[in-house]
Amino acid sequence: MDFKYSEEAEAFRREFRAWLDANPPPRIDHDVAIGEFAETGSAIWQRHLEWHRTMHSGGWVGITWPKSYGGREATLEQSIVYGEELARVHAPSLVNGLGIAMVGPTLIHWGTEEQKKRFIPKILSAEEIWCQGFSEPGAGSDLASLQTRAVEDGDDFVINGQKVWTSGAHHADMCFLLARTDPEAPKHKGISYILVDMHSPGITVRPLIQMTGDHGFNEVFFEDVRVPRKNLVGAKNQGWQVANTTLAFERSSMGGGSARDVIGAARELARLARRVPRDGGTAWDDSSVRQQVAQFAIESAALRYLNLRQLTRRLKGLPPGPEGSGAKLVMSDLTVRTAKFAMELLGPYAQFEQNAAFALEGGKWSYRMLGARMMTIAGGTSEIQHNIIGERVLGLPKG
Question: Which residue intervals of the chain are DSSP H helices?
C-alpha cells in the first residue's frame, strides 16, 4: 500500500501551511471543542469566534463545499491534509461545526434555492450559529420515537415539544429540527425537517451542566413557536430521509479529528510520565509505564490505518463502509483508557482539578477523564456501533 498523498494534496498542504504560518492561530488551553460539548466562558468563546472569522476571511471554512456555495471543492485527500495541518498548529475549533459539517451540506443536497441563498453564506461566516434539534427525553437512540409536534396553521408551522442534549443551543441563532407532522403515520414516515429561528417567541433554553463543570449541552422547550412553512426542508412527512443525510454527514465528520487527538494523546502521556515523580526518578523510568504508552501508540497507529482504509474506499468511489463504525468504537474506547491510565500515572496528583494550583499540566488529565465518556455516547453510542459491526460485518442476526 502506498501511504503517500498525491501531488495535488501536497500542493494543497503547502498552500494551507503557508497561510497558517502567516496567520497563526490563538493559543487556547482547553481540550474540548467549544460550542459543541464544552463551554468555558464568553471570553474563550469569543476567541474561537474570532479564529473562525479569520479562517473564513482566508477562504478556509467549508473547504469541501462546492465553490458556488463558498467552498473550495477540496478532494477527500485535501480534506485529510487540512485536518492534519490544523492539528499540527494546535488550531482551536471553529464555532459553527454543526452548521458546516451537518446542516450546510444537507441544504446543498435538499434545500430550495431560496433556502440555500438565505442560510448557506451565514453558516460559513458564522453570522448565524446552528444547533441540532433531534434528541428528546424519550427519543435518544430510537430517534424516530420523537414526539415534538409541528402543526400547519396558514403559512406557518406551530411547534410544541422538548429537545435535549442540544449542543450549543445557548449560542445558536438557528436550529435544524425534527418534528412530527403526521402523528397517525408510521413513526419513520410522519416526521418533517424544519429550520427554526432560535430567537422566536416561545423558545426556552435551559443549561445542562456536565460533570466537567462545563455548560455545553442544553434542553430546549418549544411552546407555540411559529415557523414559516418555507423553512421546511424536503417534503412534508419525509424528514426522516433528510435527517439520514444529515446523520451521514455527521458520522463522516467525526472520525478524523478525534482520531488525531487520540494519536497525539500517546505522545502527551509519554511527556507526562517524564514529569511524574516516582521512587527518586520519574514514572518513565518504569518499564511497565513505557510498555503501556507504547501499546497506546500502537493502537493509535492501527486506528490511523483503519481510517485510511475508509479513505481508500471513498477514493475508489465506494460509499463509506463499516470502517466508520469500527473507527468510532475504537477511538471512543481508546480515549477512555488513555485518560484512565493518566489518572493511574498521576497517583495523588490526579485529585487536582483543572487549573488547580499544584496540578501537573494544569490538571488537564482529570478534566479529560471526566469528559472521556462523552465520545462513547455522542455521534452514535458504542452499543449502536457494536450492532452495526455485528450485523453488517459479521452477519449476526439482529438482537
Answer: 7-22, 42-57, 76-88, 97-98, 104-110, 113-125, 239-273, 287-315, 323-346, 364-371, 382-392
Q: Which amino acid is at 379?
A: G
Q: Tell me: pLDDT of 81 over 80.
A: yes
Query: Average pLDDT, stretch 39-60?
Result: 85
- The mean predicted confidence, pLDDT, of the chain is 87
3-state class (DSSP) for residue 348: helix
Q: What positions carry a catalytic annotation?
A: 250
Buried b (16+ CB within 10 A) or exposed e, 252-284: bbbbbebbbbbbebbebbbebbeebeeeeeebb
Distance CA 34, CA 49 (A): 10
Question: What is the CATH number that goes with domain 7-125?
Answer: 1.10.540.10
pLDDT value of position 98: 92
- Place domain 242-392 in its CATH homologous superfamily: Butyryl-CoA Dehydrogenase, subunit A, domain 3 (1.20.140.10)
